[in-house]
Amino acid sequence: MADPLFDAMERAQLSDLLSELGPEAPTLLAPWTTRDLAAHLILRPGLVLPGAWSRLAERRQRALAQRNFIWLIATLRSGPPPGFFRIGWVRRLASLNEFYVHHEDVRRANGRGPRTNEQAMDEALWRNVRRAPWFLARRMRGAGLELQWAGTAKTFRARRGEPTARIAGPPGELLLYLFGRQGAAHVEVSGPAAAVEAVRRAQFGM
């Protein structure tokens, strides 16, 4: 299966889960509910803009969240809007990351454990993990960082520095950790005590 389809798979599965749970179920992004998250995903283009545009997008999200939940799910399920979010590399990188992480925001907040992904999906997520750390770990201080796909020899240095900590886990769990879901991600952090502490206190994510 071509990589661009993975974001569509996550979109479809998340839409199914939202429909199953209803509009008031919790997410890891408290106080957001499933209704708020659905509105956020529909308004993605506006929410990445800074300043006044971001505040306008937040107001639009709150207004959109008041729409009928069935309509919100149908709109989300219909796919990305024409333009930027249909470009192949955007779907493989930004869209796959966002839909995977937000899918887990809903799953984990409602008692669902880690998934076992097919190999091709894990390969796609691992490629994205390798592209993301320079930005997602930019606020880490006082240590270097290596990431490892647990159970394999695949590792790479995400941040230079000594001492160096290592975070090991399946690609999807590493992605969750890097996007600031440390409490939900199933990973192992190892290394010298000072490096591990630097990882623990770091603010990962956007």
Secondary structure: elements and pairs:
Elements: H1 4-21, H2 34-42, H3 44-47, H4 51-64, H5 69-77, H6 88-109, H7 119-131, H8 133-136, E1 144-149, E2 155-159, E3 164-169, H9 171-178, E4 188-190, H10 193-201
Parallel strand pairs: 1-3
Antiparallel strand pairs: 1-2, 3-4
Overall description:
53% of the residues lie in helices and 10% in strands. It has ten helices and four strands. It has helices spanning 4-21, 34-42, 44-47, 51-64, 69-77, 88-109, 119-131, 133-136, 171-178, 193-201, and strands spanning 144-149, 155-159, 164-169, 188-190. The protein has a four-stranded mixed sheet. A hairpin with a 5-residue loop joins strand 1 (144-149) and strand 2 (155-159).
Coarse morphology = globular
Largest sheet: 4 strands, mixed
Major sheet: order of its strands? 2-1-3-4
What percentage of residues falls in helices of 4 or more residues?
40-55%
* Class derived from helix and strand content: alpha+beta
Give Rg in angstroms: 17 Å
Put simply, the count of helices is 10
The tally of beta strands, per DSSP, is 4
What's the quaternary structure here?
single chain
As residue ranges, the low-confidence spans are none
Pattern of helices and strands: HHHHHHHHEEEHEH
Query: What gap, in angstroms, lies between the N and C termini?
Result: 29 Å
The amount of beta strand, in percent, is 5-15%
Q: What value does the average pLDDT take?
A: 89
Q: What would the keywords be for this entry?
A:
four-stranded mixed beta sheet; 10 helices; 53% helix
